[in-house]
Amino acid sequence: MPNAPVRTAIFPVAGLGTRFLPATKATPKELLPVIDTPLIQYAIDEAREAGIERMIFVSHPSKASIERHVRHDADLTRTLRRRGKNSVARKLERAALDEATHEVIFVMQDEPLGLGHAVNCAAQHALPGAVAVILPDDLIVGKGCLAEMVEAYAGCDAGHMVASMEVDPDAVSSYGVLAPSRTEGQLIFSSGMVEKPAVADAPSRQAVVGRYILDGSIFADLDALKPGAGGEYQLTDAIAAGIRRIGLAGFAFSGRRFDCGSKQGMLAATLYMAAQDADYADVLSEFCVTTYATSPVAA
C-alpha cells in the first residue's frame, strides 16, 4: 500500500550552537551564511522543492531572528525599493516563505532535552500522515535530498525513512548507523539502527544524516520514550521502537552533504560553493597562493 503524501516538515532550530561561539552568542547558528545564504534558507528551499505545505520551526525564545528571516518583511522591502535596491528586495521576497502558499508555525523548546523532544514539540501542529524532519546543520547540495526522499517514500513499504551515506570507518562512531537487511536501488532496508557504535561493533558504515521522513506514529513512540543520557530524548530511540511494526529504510541520496555543525564542514561548504561561482575564482586563487607561499614547507 503506497504511503500518504508528506505535507509537514519540522525544523529543529532551538540549539545553542556552542561549537561556533562566540559567533553564535547573538546570531543563531542557523543564520550563519554559506557565502551569502543562511543555512536555514537552504533547508527551507529544500522543503519547498519537496512540496511541503506546513513548516514547523521548533525554536527558542532567544532566537527570534530566525522567525524574522523566515517571514516576509514588508517594511524592509519597501525601504529597499525606495532606495532603488529592487533586485535585493526581490531576492528577499523570493527567500521569505509566502504564507498564502505555505503554513508557517513557530513553537518553542524552552529546555534542551534532545532531538526527540524537539520533534515532539511539533506534534499537535503536524498535518495527518508522515512528517519530514530537516536538520539545517546538514547542508545537502545538488539534487534536492528531501524531494528525492518524498518521491521514494510514496512507493516504499517502510514507514520510516532516513537519509544515509557511507562514511569512513573512523567516522562511524559519530553517527547512528543502519543494520542493513537488503538493498533496492537507493533504498537500504534495515532491521535496526545503532547509535554511535565503536567501529568494531558497527553493523555497517551506512550513517544516518539530517533528513528523515517519519510515520505519524513517531509521536506516540516519542510520548512513550524514557530519557537517555543527560536527560535527553533521542529521536533514534523512538525510530528504533517502530522498526518491527512499520519498517525502516535508509535512502542513499544523490547530493553532496556538508556537516555545517562543525567549523571544518562550514568552511568546506563555503569553499565548495565559492568554487561553483566564477566571481570567486580570483579570491580562491589568491588564497591558495598565499597559503602555500607562507607555509613552513614552502619557505
From TrEMBL:
Give the highest taxon in the source lineage: Bacteria
- Key words of the record: Nucleotidyltransferase, Transferase
Q: Which InterPro entries does the entry mention? A: GalU_uridylyltTrfase_bac/arc, NTP_transferase_dom, Nucleotide-diphossugar_trans
Q: What class of enzyme is it?
A: transferase
Chain ranges of the Nucleotidyl transferase domain: 14-270
Reactions catalysed, semicolon-separated, are: alpha-D-glucose 1-phosphate + UTP + H(+) = UDP-alpha-D-glucose + diphosphate
A Pfam cross-reference name: NTP_transferase
Q: Does the record carry Oxidoreductase as a key word?
A: no
Asked whether the keyword Nucleotidyltransferase is assigned, the reply is yes
One of the GO BP terms on file:
UDP-alpha-D-glucose metabolic process
- As recorded in UniProt, its EC number(s) are 2.7.7.9
MF terms per GO, please?
UTP:glucose-1-phosphate uridylyltransferase activity
Identify its protein family. Belongs to the UDPGP type 2 family.
Which protein is depicted?
UTP--glucose-1-phosphate uridylyltransferase
